[in-house]
Structure formats: C-alpha cells, structure tokens
Write a structure and sequence with these properties.
The complex is a heterodimer of chains A (371) and B (665).
Chain A lengths: L1 H10 L2 H4 L4 H21 L4 H23 L5 H22 L1 E3 L2 E6 L4 E2 L1 H18 L7 H19 L4 H17 L4 H22 L2 H11 L10 H11 L12 H4 L11 H33 L4 H25 L18 H18 L1 H4 L1
Antiparallel strand pairs in A: 1-2, 2-3
Helix pairs in contact in A: 3-4, 3-13, 4-15, 5-6, 5-7, 6-7, 6-8, 6-14, 6-15, 7-8, 8-14, 11-13, 13-14, 14-15
Chain B lengths: L1 H8 L2 H36 L1 H12 E6 L6 E2 L5 E14 L6 H12 L3 H13 L5 E5 L4 H10 L6 E10 L7 H4 L2 E3 L2 H9 L11 E3 L2 H5 L1 H5 L3 E7 L5 E8 L6 E4 L3 H10 L5 E7 L4 E8 L5 H4 L4 H8 L22 H11 L7 E4 L2 E3 L6 E3 L7 E4 H7 L2 H11 L1 H10 L21 H8 L5 H7 L10 H12 L10 E13 L11 E11 L14 H17 L11 E7 L22 E8 L6 E7 L7 H4 L1 H12 L22 H4 L3
Parallel strand pairs in B: 2-10
Antiparallel strand pairs in B: 1-8, 2-3, 3-4, 3-5, 6-7, 8-9, 10-17, 11-12, 11-21, 13-16, 14-15, 17-18, 19-20, 20-21
The chains are: A mainly alpha (371), B alpha+beta (665).
Family (chain A): Belongs to the SEDS family. MrdB/RodA subfamily.
Pfam families (chain A): FTSW_RODA_SPOVE
GO cellular component, one term (chain A): plasma membrane
C-alpha cells in the first residue's frame, strides 16, 4: 500500500500536490478578471472600487486555497455539530440580529458583523450529503423525509429574516443532494405537486408585502415603470440596447449615465450585456458552462458517495446562482437579491462561493490519500 | 464496526452509475436552462434590439429648446424702433454652492438685493431640483454686473445669465402702433396650443400683446432651435450631442417715419388727441400717434401693479387708449363727402343753392336746427357751403338725400368698417343709418336723425384712421389702398456658393454666405369707388382746396398746396337756443376739434387726420389744423410744391374772422 501510495504521489503534478484543480481555477480567474473590467465600468470608472474588489478576490482565493488543503472526508466529523451551531446562530439572528436593508441578516459579534446564512450555504449540502450517504443509494423515502426536514429548518429560518435569495439557494443545495442521491421520480413529481399546492399558502401567509410586490412587478414591470418596475425595465433596456456587439467597454449609456440601478452588484450582468452585447453574453455563459461541466466531472469522478453528492450539489447550486441572477436581470425571474457569481462586486458571498470551490478542489485532488 | 459492515454490503458501482445518471440528467437540465437564458437574451438583444435601442436613447437624449431671436423693427428710414437687448440676471445652482445660505446673504449685501427676493429663492429651492439654475435677481444694472463679476470667485454656484429682451428705444412715442411684448400667460399658452404652436414657443418667454408686435407675431417670432444633449438619470446635462440653431424672426420695416411721429407728438403736447398721416398713393401710414401715450418697455419685464394703476387712473387721461382708432363724431370734416353724395345722387348740382337764415326747420315741427353762424350765410352753393361750413346747406342736403343714400356712400368710403390696417386695435366705429341704429340702440330712424348726420353729428362716429382713409380715397378720386404699417420684411438667408466651378474628385469647395434679403410687402387694392360723373371728384376737392387756402390761418404761408376741412364736434346736446359756453361746460364734455387735410393738392402724397379732445376755445380750424400743418411741414421739408395756376390760389379772406372768436368752424 505504501509503495503504491508513494508511486502515485510521485505521479502527482505540482498543482495536485497543492490541491488546485487547474481547469476550475482558470475558469474562476477568467470570470474574476472579466468581472474587474465590468466593475470598473459599472462603478463610475473609479480605480478605488477595483482595488477593493481585487483585495476581496485575493482573500476569497486564499480561503479557497486553504479549504482545498482539507481532506473532504474529514468534513463528515464536523457536519452535525456545525449544522446545529448554524441553526442556533440563525435563531440568534432572528432574536438579536442587526437590521440592515430592512432584513435581519447580520449578527454583531462586537468585533465583526457576521452573516450566519452564508455559512449555511456550505453546511447544508455537507450535512445532507453526510446524512444521505450513510445509507445505500438510491435513498429510501424515510431517509429523504428526514433530509427534507433538515433542509427545511435553515431554509425557513433564513426566509424569515427575510432573505428569499439565500434561502432559495440553500434549499436547492439540499434538494440537489436528495436528487443526486436517487430520489425516485414518483417522489419528485409528488413534491413538485405539493410545492405548487403550497405556493398560495406561501403567498398568503409567509411572504412580506415587498416580496409580493417583487413578484407582481416581475409579472408586469410596465405597470409601475418609475417605481417598483424601474429596475427591471432599465435592466432590460440596458441588455436589449447592447445588440450583437454591445456599445463597447465604458460606453454603455444605461450604466454610465446611471439609469441602471445596482449596477456593480446584482445588475452587473445588464452592464456587461450592454457593453459587450450578445457575443459577450455567449462567451460569459460558455465560461460558466465550462466551470459547471468541470464541477460535474469532479463529482462523477469522486470516490465516495459523500464527496460525489457534495461536489454535485456545490456545482449545481453554483449554476442556480448564475441562472437566478441572469434570469432576474433579464426579466425571466422575479427580482431576488442574488449576485452574479465571481463577477458582481461584493465580499461575503464571494468568500463563501470560493470556499465551495475549495471543497470541489479538495474533492478533486485528495482522492488517493484517504483511499 | 457497523460502518465497515455497511460499506461491505454497498454496491459501489451501482451507486456510481446511479449518480452518473442523475448528474447527466441534471446536466441536461442545466443545458435546457442555459438555452432558456440565451434565447431570452437573444430575443432582447437581437430581435428587440431596435426597440430597446430607442428606449435607451430616449432615456439619455433630451432635446432642449433654444429660443429664436425676435425680429427687429425699423422705421421707413432704417431707424431701429424695437431692439433686443441683453438683460442680465443673477442665477444660483444650489448643488454647486458651498455654503448656500451664507453666500446668498453675502451676495445680497454686495449687490443690494432685497430680503423679499432672497425669501423667494429659498422658497423656490424647496420645490425645484438642486442642479437647476434659480433666479435671485432678474435685472442687474451694469454696475451690479461689474461688481459681481469682480467678486464671482467668492461665490461658487452663482453666475450671471444673459438673455435678450425687447427694448423700445423711443418709449411712449411708438407704443400705440408697435404695441409691446410681455410674458406669455395662460391664455396665450392655450391659444398657442390650439394653433399647434406650443412646441415652437417652448423656449420663448414673451409674446406680442398689442399693436404690430401682436399682429406680426408669427413673422417676428422665428423658428425654435434645439440642442440635443445627453443627460444622466438625474437629468443633468453631460454633453451636447447636436445643435440645430434657431432661425431668427424676420425684421420688419415700417412705413412710419419716426421723425414725423416725433413732430406729431410735439404738436399734440399737452392735448388729448391723435394724429394719423397716410400716404394716399399706397396706403402707407407715415405717422400714428395718440396722446397721452405710455412706455411699452414697462410691460416687457412685467409691469408693477403700482405703475399699472397709474396707467388706469382716469386722472392721467387714459394713456392706454389708442385714440387714433377710437370713434369720434366727425362733425363738419365729412361735409365734402356729403356734398359728393349729393352731387352723385343728383339731389344738387354745383350750382344749386340753399338759403340760410341761420336755422333749418323740418316741416310741421317746432324744433329749429341752428347754424353755427347765427345770422345765417344767406344764399350759398356747395363750394361756399364747404368753405364756410354752412350747416343749413347740409341740413337741406341731408334732408333731400335721405339717410339711405348717405349710408350707402359713407360705407363705400369705409366708415363703419375695419380699415384693414395691420393692428388688431382697428375699430369699426358707427356708420350712420337705419340698420346701425336698430342693431345698436334698437330704435327706428327719424328724419331728425338724418338732419344731424348732415353735419357729421348724431349717430355717426369715425376713427381718425378711418377719417384719414376716407380722405385718402377722396384724394385718390376713388382708388382705395388699404392702410398699413408694414413696408418690407427682411430675413437672413444662408446660401451655399460653390467657389470653384470645376468639381474636383466629387468634392467642391463651398462657401456659406448669409445675407439679409429684404422683400417688399404687397398689398391688394380694394375695388375703387366709381362715380357716375368723374367731375364730381374735382368739385369737392376744389372746395376743400379753396377752404384750406382761404379759411385756415394755420395753413398760411405753407410752401405746398394743401386742401382741408375742419370740424368741431359737440359732445352734449344743447337745448333749443341755448348758447354753448365752454368755460361753464365740464372739461370732458367740451367740443372736440377735428381736422383732415391732404397735400399737395394736385398729386396728394399725404393725408393727415387730427382729433383734439375737449378744446376750451375755438374749433377744428384753430386747434387741430395747426397740428396737421406741423406734420405736413415736416413731411415736405424744403420741398416747394405750389401750383403755377394762379386761379387755384384764392386769396386768404376770412369773412367771418378767425374761428377763434366764434368758437366754431
């Protein structure tokens, strides 16, 4: 065993030894660099904003690198206690949380502010993957039921803050594990049926007025073009007026003249499509597709059920990010606060995201050590 | 070792297969969702590109209207009557100031701006956007401009804005003909909207309110220009994309001679009245002045209520009234026209005579219609009757003519109708006749009314302009020219002139030349008055010539041949045999003095009509004729135009003495 291990270790490349998956890293860096250009354009062409973003990207990359060094199977030990801690923190947020932008998302620890829901984005897939992978696949109904409950707890707590975007992402990360674990199609169809039955209940009792307004606005933004419909209308104008080749970098009138709101954060995709056009969008989506394909490749080639499920869930959730953001900005989905991953300006979610990629890299590179 | 046991029974390859299948399905789902995204974006960016391109442009591109310069107005000799002068206002852009309140205080102290104006600005600040300029002071003096310019660096966000405003250099001399411009009000806006002109006036602040400024508004205004600018979401201008300059309004050249106008003003000094001078050959109005007048410049910047009350105060003799288009009883001035009517109707001939015992009486009626000359003129023919303004002759004539003949002929001379002059203030006044009396007073016509009309009194008023026009027609022997102010319009025409005839490689050098192109204004004549017997013109004109030469001291020594007729209008009815005593009569009820004249007699070039209200002593000959003389003297200047035919120059012999003594004609 030792010899074989030794031989294999010899065969490893430099990148494998430092636990970096090169195709994934290239895709991530490509998007980050692209993002810097767009952030510069969208942020009023100030270099200060670009430097801040570079700092954040640097930190996030370091986090990714650090996470990649941890053997993925060791997550399992920590899954339950960290998950419970996460739930407690979420409850604490609801009780003592700091209110910002009309929602309680932050926990003030005295020396820093802390957003427990971000951590849950990672813990939930780990927890569910750990739980489900303890049993034979395809997972049984009883396993799935408990898994569902485990997903639902943090989802509801986060939805209550209210943070619809994050709770949606967390729910999907859990659901993806269940799906990949082989939940029967009968069950999936039933769940979709139940969910649609649940929708009116959600509408009547759980959604806040501003959330309802977002949905109404999504259905017909032109009914209030200067009010709630303004964002989406201006965003569609920005995208549409980009045309095939776009107006050129720094030349997007919708963004440069500030008609577009949230230009460098949630609506950065509109800036990108205005300035780089359909061609730019096709390139951007291709890069995302490449990352997703690499993530799925890593998942399929993972050695354990736990790592397979975890890698699959992280990758699919990453795609959900992309889909929800672009869908929202281009008017396919209602406005929920989800940034465009790796491109949007912003700190916390970037760190979480790259920690996720760190796990993918760990799964991809730690294989034969533990076997 | 439960864990090991579980691992032992696990089918790893089956699980891997299941996972791979599920991953593949998820990947298919991802592709489907990506396809949805990309097709939606394809729809936005490719299919609907033009729609969003347009919306994007309408977001950022705004058209700012640029007001055209108003056309200038000149007199017939090219002297400027209506100018555009820069007016300086102090403006503030709140957003660009450092310490708004403090600086407003300081700048107000520096330029002596009232508290009231500061308050107004603070109030405006609350409702207006902070990057829009707001006015702190509207009309800065040259001194204030200089003072501010020196200190401008201390007041960021404060600046001086220059705008062109109308200025009438001759002030009250021209107001009744030029009129004035003033701020566009709600009524004007509604009218502009109805005429679909609101877009053209988007940047215009003032509009013609009176006189020629109003009549020729559409010529003077010009065409709006546009500045195409890029704005941001706050509406702030980022840069100018395109500029379509406005086209200035056309300049007007009037027939008015400002010097003649000045003489008219001087001649009327201290009197209430009006002068109208027309060139009968073409209808050009040479002078039109109404006294007292007022300064139109007052209205350009918005007249203060104090000044406006002053203009309305009856004590100030109603300067707003344009007396040259107000109706006055024509009195004896129209006797030549009535004589012509008599000749044409065959009621009299040049030889016909009536006996004047000093009064006229209708058969079977008590009332005696008095002659102004109580002893009576004895036997008089038409010529003498006009010369001496014999009332009894014209009582008889009017009686024999009957009112319908008079109405018909006076209508032909333009009475009771608009003259067609190019100011809207033109009035119809009152045409004597059955219909007028019925429609205006709802009363039938009595024979007695006809008798009064015989001497230009009763149901008859004429405007000085109508009077001048009627005698222009007479002087023209029937030719009718529409009276007007506008002689010519001038506009800047831009031409591209090729420098080289040869076009080298498809490109030619082009020089852009702009020049003023003047166009004389054409007027159509009305159909002339055609008499049954053309000699009748001469008979009446002769009589007027004779009258001017013999009767009016005012025309003694003139170096041109004038013909004229005076009139003295009674404003209150006297009782039978009551004597008129000017001193005892209230000022506003005293007689009006009228005079109408033309010269030279043989080829008339100028017709002057004068009215002087409420004279204390004397009549038209004494009070109004000298005004006409001064205007005509100015008109003819050094020219000597006296007929060589001695017979046409009867000696001056005023049998009845100067009319100053008699108080009448």
């Amino acid at each position: 065993m030792r010899n074989i291990g030794h031989d294999q270790q010899k065969q490893r490349s430099f990148w494998q030894r430092i636990h970096i998956d090169v195709p994934l890293l290239l895709g991530i860096l490509a998007l980050m660099i692209l993002g810097l250009f767009v952030v510069y354009s969208a942020g009023g062409q100030e270099s200060a904003i670009v430097y801040r973003q570079i700092t954040r990207l640097g930190i996030a990359l370091l986090v990714m690198f650090a996470v990649a060094q941890i053997p993925p199977l060791s997550y399992q030990k920590w899954a339950v206690p960290v998950f419970v801690l996460g739930l407690l923190l979420l409850i604490a947020v609801l009780l003592f949380g700091h209110i910002g932008k009309g929602a309680q998302r932050w926990l003030d620890l005295g020396f820093m502010k802390f957003q427990p829901s971000e951590i849950m984005k990672l813990i939930v897939p780990i927890m569910i993957a750990w739980y489900v992978s303890q049993y034979d696949l395809p997972a049984k109904i009883s396993t799935i039921t408990i898994a569902f409950i485990l997903v639902l707890l943090p989802t509801l707590l986060i939805a209550k803050q209210p943070d619809l975007g994050t709770s949606l992402l967390i729910a999907s990360s859990g659901v993806f594990v269940i799906f990949l674990a082989g939940a029967s199609w009968k069950l999936i169809v039933t769940c979709i049926g139940l969910a649609s039955a649940f929708a009116p209940v959600l509408w009547m009792f759980l959604m806040k007025p501003y959330q309802k307004q977002r949905v109404l606005t999504f259905l017909d933004p032109e009914q209030d073009p200067l009010g709630s419909g303004y964002h989406i209308i201006q965003s569609k104008i920005a995208i549409g007026s980009g045309g095939l080749h776009g107006k050129g970098w720094l030349q997007g009138t919708q963004s440069q003249l500030e008609f577009l709101p949230e230009r460098h954060t949630d609506f950065i995709f509109a800036v990108f499509s205005e300035e780089f056009g359909f061609v730019g969008v096709a390139v951007l989506l291709s890069v995302y597709l490449i990352i997703v394909m690499r993530g799925l490749w890593i998942a399929v080639h993972a050695e354990h059920a736990f790592t397979k499920l975890l890698a699959g869930s992280i990758t699919l959730t990453f795609f959900v990010y992309v889909f929800v953001n672009i869908g929202m900005v281009s008017g396919l989905l209602p406005v929920v606060g989800v940034p465009l991953p790796l491109v949007s300006y912003g700190g916390t979610s970037m760190v979480t995201l790259l920690a996720g990629f760190g796990m993918l890299m760990a799964i991809s590179t730690h294989k034969r050590f533990i076997a | 070792m439960a864990s090991n046991k579980r691992v032992a029974i696990r089918n790893h390859s089956a699980e891997a297969n299941l996972f791979a299948r599920r991953t593949f399905i998820a990947f298919i789902g991802i592709l489907a969702l990506l396809l949805t995204l990309i097709s939606n974006i394809y729809d936005l960016e490719i299919n609907s590109y033009e729609k969003y391109q347009t919306r994007s442009n309408s977001n950022r591109i705004k058209l700012l209207p640029v007001a055209p310069n108003r056309g200038l107005i000149y007199d017939r000799n090219g002297i400027l009557l209506a100018d555009n002068k820069p007016v300086y206002s102090l403006e503030v852009i709140a957003e660009q100031t450092i310490d708004l309140k403090k600086h407003i205080k300081e700048v107000s102290e520096l330029l002596d701006i009232s508290e009231e104006k500061q308050e107004k600005l603070f109030k405006a600040l609350k409702s207006k956007r902070r990057f829009k300029p707001l006015e702190l002071h509207s009309r800065l003096s040259a001194q204030q401009v200089a003072l501010f310019s020196v200190n401008q660096h201390k007041f960021p966000g404060f600046f001086i804005d220059a705008r062109l405003k109308r200025y009438y250099p001759f002030g009250d001399l021209t107001t009744h003909s030029l009129g004035y411009v003033a701020r566009i009000n709600r009524k004007d806006s509604i009218r502009l909207a109805e005429d679909n002109l609101d877009e053209d006036y988007a940047a215009t602040r003032n509009i013609g309110k009176l006189g020629l400024e109003k009549y020729y508004e559409n010529i003077l205004h010009g065409t709006i220009g546009h500045q195409e600018v890029e704005i941001n979401n706050q509406g702030r201008i980022i840069r100018t994309l395109d500029y379509a300059p406005p086209i200035s309004g056309k300049n007007l050249t009037l027939s008015i001679d400002i010097e003649l106008q000045m003489i008219a003003k001087r001649a009327l000094a201290g009197k209430r009245g009006a002068v109208v001078a027309i060139d009968p050959r073409n209808g050009e109005i040479l002078a039109m002045y109404s006294n007292p007048s007022y300064d139109g410049n007052l209205f350009v910047h918005g007249i203060s209520s104090k000044n406006y009350r002053k203009l309305l105060n009856p004590k100030n003799d109603r300067p707003l009234l344009n007396r040259s288009v107000q109706g006055y009883p024509p009195a004896s001035t129209v006797k030549p026209l009535l004589g012509l009517t008599g000749l044409e109707a065959g009621v009299i001939t040049n030889e016909s005579r009536f006996y004047d015992p000093g009064w006229f009486q209708l058969k079977g009626l008590e009332r005696k219609y008095r002659d102004w000359w109580a002893p009576g003129h004895g036997w008089v023919d038409l010529n003498q009757a006009i010369e001496h303004s014999c009332n009894v002759f014209f009582y008889n004539l009017a009686y024999q003519l009957n009112i319908d003949n008079i109405t018909d002929m006076m209508e032909k001379f333009g009475f009771g109708d608009l003259t067609g002059v190019d100011i809207w203030e033109d009035k119809r006044a009152i045409l004597p006749g059955r219909e007028t009396k019925r429609s205006r007073y709802n009363k039938p016509w009595y024979t007695g009314d006809t008798i009064a009309v015989g001497i230009g009194q009763g149901y008859w008023t004429v405007t000085p302009l109508q009077l001048a026009q009627a005698f222009s027609i007479l002087a023209n022997k029937g030719d009718i020219k529409i009276p007007h102010f506008l002689r010519a319009t001038a506009e800047l025409v831009v031409e591209e002139v090729a420098i080289n005839d040869e076009i080298i490689s498809g490109e030619s050098d082009v020089n852009i030349i702009s020049k003023m192109v003047t166009k004389m204004t054409d007027y159509d004549d009305k159909p002339p008055i055609i008499l049954k017997n053309n000699k009748h013109w001469n008979l009446v004109l002769d009589a007027m010539h004779n009258t001017a030469q013999k009767k009016y001291p005012a025309f003694q020594g003139a170096r041109y041949d004038a013909a004229g007729k005076s009139g003295t209008a009674q404003l209150i009815a006297k009782k039978q045999d009551e004597k008129y005593d000017a001193e005892a009569t209230k000022e506003k009820q005293r007689n009006n003095a009228m005079f109408v004249a033309f010269a030279p007699y043989e080829n008339p070039e100028i017709v002057v009509a004068v009215v002087v209200e409420n004279v204390l002593e004397g009549g038209g000959g004494f009070n109004a004729a000298p005004v006409a003389r001064q205007v005509m003297d100015q008109y003819f200047g050094d020219r000597v135009i006296i007929s060589t035919d001695k017979s046409k120059h009867p000696q001056h012999n005023n049998v009845y003495g100067a009319d100053k003594k008699t108080g009448r004609n």
